[in-house]
Write a structure and sequence with these properties.
256 residues; alpha/beta; 7-stranded mixed beta sheet; 5-stranded mixed beta sheet; 8 helices; 24% strand
């Protein structure tokens, strides 16, 4: 899930920082860095229905960072659970995918500074009046996206006897379709992503219960790739300092 993690209220709170008027670094000798993402996680990354291109907050952010860092990037769609293995094998150079920073991941990849904080929350169909808290999941089936912090949380709740069954899916859109069709009882997912789905599909689902602990999103590079990470971190500082980060927050989250 999330820079593991950004602020709350309406999906998240940006935390811009840094200052200065640094100029973009010189171009990086023509090398194109491959950025892996999983584009069913709006508004962070998703496929534009009109153009077929991968767009979103994360995509605009990494492109802006790359421009300031003087490097070229190309976006590649992958399954979420394949992102870190692809980074480790060298098939991609960077991951940005609403990925939560946690100890397990940080042991095998290097994260940049967190850029967003989010929370997990339960979602149910709009007419569901039975599930109002975690305690109400005891005899229920919960849907999650593979490899996400929502999946980790659901498995944790199952181990505690608070969830009957966990069903895992590859993409968020499939999870919500399964929820609406009645094949699962609830979803545990990143709050801003669920809110984005609700905005596009009004009256279908709703949030219930209290948000779980926050989590932060970060971009990642292969373990030990200090040179690339330093370039990206410097680019992020400039994006924050020149107001671009705030503009992207306004574009995708309405300034929340």
């Amino acid at each position: 899930l999330t820079v593991a993690l950004v602020g709350c209220g309406g999906g998240g709170t940006a935390t811009p920082q840094g200052s200065g008027d640094e100029e973009a670094a010189p171009a990086d000798s023509g090398k194109v860095y491959i950025v892996g993402t999983e584009p069913t996680f709006p508004p962070f990354e998703y496929v534009d229905e009109n153009t077929g291109e991968i767009v979103g907050f994360d995509i605009d952010l990494i492109k802006a960072i790359a421009e300031r860092a003087g490097i070229q990037v190309e976006i590649k769609s992958m399954g979420f659970d394949g992102l870190i293995p692809a980074l480790q094998s060298g098939n991609i150079d960077i991951v940005i995918a609403g990925m939560t920073v946690n100890e397990e991941r940080a042991a095998v990849v290097d994260f940049g500074p967190s850029y967003w904080e989010a929370y997990l929350q339960i979602a149910v169909t709009a007419d569901n009046e039975d599930i109002k808290s975690v305690e109400d999941l005891k005899d229920k089936t919960v849907g999650v996206q593979i490899g996400t912090t929502g999946a980790f949380k659901a498995e944790e709740l199952k181990a505690q006897g608070l969830v009957k069954e966990v069903k895992t899916y590859n993409t968020v859109d499939v999870i919500f379709m399964e929820l609406i069709q009645g094949n699962i009882d609830a979803v545990i997912n990143d709050l801003p992503v669920t809110e984005a789905y609700m905005a596009r599909n009004p009256g279908k689902i709703k949030l219930t219960g209290e948000p779980f602990e926050g989590e932060e999103y970060g971009y990642a590079v292969a373990k030990g790739n200090k040179e690339l990470l330093e370039k990206l971190n410097a680019g992020l500082e400039q994006v924050r300092a020149d107001g671009t980060f705030d503009e992207l927050v306004l574009k995708y989250f309405g300034g929340e």
